[in-house]
Amino acid sequence: MKSAFTRSTLAVALLATALGASAQAQTTDFGPDAAHVSIETRMRVAATIKESVATYFAHWQAVPELDFDKAFDEYVTQIARTDDRRAFDLATMTLIAKLGNGHTNFRDKWLSQQSGPATGLAIDVRDGQWLVINSQRASVPAGSVITSVDGEPIETFYAKHRDAIAASTERARRGKLFNIPEFFPMQFKLGLGDGRTVTLNRKDKPGFWNEPPVPKQLPEGVYYTSIPQFGQPKFENDAIAFVQAHADAKALIIDVRGNGGGNTPAKLLDALIVKPYTGWAEMSAMSVGLLKTYGAFVDQVSVKDDAEFHGFADGMQSYFRRPMLYAPGALVRPGKPVYTGKLIVLIDQNCASACEDFVMPLRATKRATLIGDTTYGSSGQPRSIDFGNGMSMRIGAKRMLLGDDSKFEGVGIEPDLRLVTSAEQLRRGEDPALAAALAATE
Questions:
Q1: Count of alpha carbons within 13 Å of 102, Cβ hemisphere only?
Q2: Which residues are CB-contacts of 382 (< 8 A; sequence separation ≥ 6)?
Q3: Torsion of CA 176, 181, 187, 189, to 10 degrees
Q4: pTM for this model (two decimals)
Q5: Separation between Cα atoms, residue 10 and residue 208, nearest integer Å
Q6: Span between the terminal Cα atoms of the chain, in Å
Q7: Are the beta carbons of 246 and 252 closer than 8 angstroms?
Q8: Which domains does the chain have, with CATH numbers?
Q9: Which first-to-last residue range defines the signal peptide (predicted)?
Q10: For 212-269, how does the pLDDT look when each residue is reduced to its tens digit (9 = 90+)?
């Protein structure tokens, strides 16, 4: 039976990611002096960062060795030396990236505008290879392996920029490298694994992202759809309509690969979940003056010098220095499911945030067979701060745990069957995860 397919999840998500910076820059005008940042503005931004991180940041567990106060002092010294905006932006990006969280970052529209178009390449590092998983550049098709940038080994090039990339995992950090045009000259050369060297000019008009293959024919009673994002209600509503239209189907395949999130699709989950489950456990920073006072107890000279109280003071600091409010996962009962048959969901490393809100209950209740790759591993309500000059910041204000209190941030949700497309399969246009999903419907 034939089925109508929506635009590929992966293609849409990568398009939004890679072109987001340049599209944003095209709508913003800056004055002739925008390349310089006054000392007043630099210090105001710095002070806001210090206060906001202390108040809202919920992911200190991910960076137990980080001395943020020391890093911040070094940052202030650095930004005080020059009014160059690019230098200020990169220093700020580097400071925020030390927090190691995918929902915590700094952006400047001016820097995006100055940096120009994106590279047009989507990358994932697999088995030590920098693999092009999608491309707008005909000379560097999907399946290409990047070995160097302007003659510099790719690992060396990455190491130069790594500290300015905000992410929850090393894999995600590497995957973002080619999404940040600030790191690349307008024209640069790529060395490829097949021995070729190609020259890319970011000003050249990009082509279209390649769409992963979708089946032209489906088994009788099997239907497929993809959900590109949950940022706009339309996509959840379309998915609900799809489920309603095929309530008696033998099997449904829902593809959320590349879905970067948006808003939790609660209504879609209601249409699919048939068993109760324990929802996310949540943690958030508690900014309470008395607790901070207890946390600073060990810094008092009289306490440090008193052996009798030293152990007690250490305990006070570790417990109160960054206190967290914890809410255990609540029992979530199913609503009125529309579809109760076989469900297969395709996931990958770019399924993030609200996409993981969708996947988690399916995994917890064993409602669906998950096929593909481990999800991104980052969610939580970010606190957005607009500095009013093109600069903005987000701070991850909620740390989420799985219902059994096991770690999620920086870990993700694993599939039941892990299938990652190889370089050769990408070159041939094959999709092993989708093939496995079709086989699982039989």
A1: 29
A2: 103, 104, 394, 395, 396, 397
A3: -10
A4: 0.85
A5: 13
A6: 14
A7: yes
A8: 210-283+329-440 (3.90.226.10), 289-322 (no CATH)
A9: 1-23
A10: 667 778 999 999 999 999 999 999 999 999 999 999 999 999 999 999 999 999 999 9
